[in-house]
Amino acid sequence: MELDVVELSRLQFAMTAMYHFLFVPLTLGLSVLVAIMETVYVMTNRPIWRQMTKFWGTLFGINFVLGVATGITMEFQFGMNWSYYSHYVGDIFGAPLAVEGLMAFFLEATFVGLFFFGWDKLSKVGHLTVTWLVAIGSNLSALWILIANGWMQNPVGAVFNPDTMRMEMTSFFDVVFNEVAQAKFVHTVSAGYVTAAVFVMGVSAWYMLKGRHMELARRSITVASSFGLAAALSVVVLGDESGYSATHTQKMKLAAMEGMWETHEAPAPFTAVGFPDTEARETHYKVEVPWVMGLIGTRSLTQEIPGINELVAESREKIRDGILAYDALMTIRDARGDAPDAVRAEFERNSDDLGYAFLLKQYVDDPREATDAQIAKAAEDTIPGVGPLFWAFRIMVGLGFGFIAVMAYFFVQTSFRGMRYPRPALWLAVIIIPAPWIAAELGWFVAEYGRQPWTVDGVLPTALSASHLSVADLAITLAGFVTFYTVLFVIEMGLMLKYIRRGPAEDVEETEAWMARHEHRLRTHDGNLPGATPAE
What's the pTM value of the predicted model, to 2 decimals? Predict the structure, then answer.
């Protein structure tokens, strides 16, 4: 396929987003794990927990810096590569981004410095407060980003103003408490917690295999396995909530994920395995689990989930209604504020489908001149890539259940088997370290690729959102971003591996072992060390 400006712009943004999200989930999860470890240190006053906090905090810091560096670029891309999108919906999309920058980012960045340089300048409780504020700031940052993204998936709290030719916010409350945004936030954050838990457990398992830093490793596995099990279970539950939300907000995405071409009699089954065939409009060799999709998608046994073919037919009707809205909009624009009330009423009746008329812009300059064949083609464009979505979703789900199994095993071994970990289990913990990142990237692929052909679902097609750039401009900057981000990734991996191999800067395990022997001798000799006087 020949890449045009829109495709190259999508590829560039996808590349920067996926690079950025290599750092985000570990930042989200490690910030909370480090805060938990320091809480235990303040409560018990045991040096080993301070050592753990500093060690895992160092790895968090490296990851945090790279996350910030790669994230800032993405926000500039909205203006550089997607200028019409920024013009059309900037009043809504810009608000949560501004809040994220002003509140969450500055909160997070300010207290990160205090975390690293305030150990000897703040009280224990004061430093613990700083650590929790870093964790809260990290998660707030994710919240506002996901509110913005959730609005793109389900554009509530906004209307199109025919006089300004832009979308305008009507309710900030609706934007913030958008059901898609809230479901995405808790699901994404939980996935970050799983990522950090797998990372901490894998690195700790490696130490145990090498016979190094055993006390730090055992305690880290204890925290990671319990925290990770709770997070992995919540990812599945919250993912189910996202599926339920998609039933009434993004029906085509859900049907494509399931490879469901025809509307199935309620309750619909879940297709565990199958081979979607776009040309035949059929999914071959399906292995179905009865009722499951109906229960996930509708929370009922009687409500149907529409198939792709039915949704395409609905899209054709929406395109026709959108043409009526477009015609009224052009009249309002040409009248310059003096349009008849009847025309405005006509626009209001069909304004919800205006975005569907814009789908025709790829085939005809004026949607009012579109032929039936062009309308049918535009309706077909509302089908995202079924095969990639189908398999990406299933691999992601399979990995999710795998994390539950691994975390549950280590939790049982930690809690009920005296922290006895067989070497094969430790090697498994090391090997699966990359798996949460694979699951997270697949999750974003499903969310974003499944929204196509829309930048803002049902409102603004991706084909109309890009800036007027040349293919050469995009190809050069894409190559530059790939090169620069790859260098940053190599640097980050090098630093992480360096500090993991080095281990904790201050090794307190020998001190604690000596203290344990010291206490034993005190008890053995009635308070006297061998060779010491009672005064000593």
Answer: 0.90
